[in-house]
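sorry to bug you again but im stuck and you know this stuff better than me. below you get a single protein, a line of residues and a line of whole numbers that encode the local backbone shape. mainly i need to know what kind of three dimensional shape the backbone takes. anything you notice is useful, everything is just below:

***
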Amino acid sequence: MPEEPARDSSSSPVSPADSLSNSDGEADRPPKRCGRKRRSSRKNGEDSDSSTLGKRGKKSSNSSNSPQSFEELQTQRVMANVRERQRTQSLNDAFAALRKIIPTLPSDKLSKIQTLKLAAR
């Protein structure tokens, strides 16, 4: 008789299905907290995941080769800052162009979110 309860617990499809649905529900929740970008990139396909992992792999390989000089690290940081400033400037220019297209009062300078909401209409 002790074998039968063991078989019942292992053969009952309700428990694994419930645990799978719970784990799926839990897996769906963290991407919602992290934001839409991560969630959509995961749903877009494995290609985007593999490219992201490849970038991460490069970073980890660089950290494993950590005998980089301070000057190299400083140069990389400066270049990253330059790229970020260019990206931000490009984004601001795009918003300025979008604000010109959207009809508003001249005294109104729309925020970025307001600009996007009006442009989506």
User: Anything to note?
Assistant: The helical segments are 3-11, 14-34, 36-44, 46-64, 70-101, 112-120. The chain has a mean pLDDT of 67.
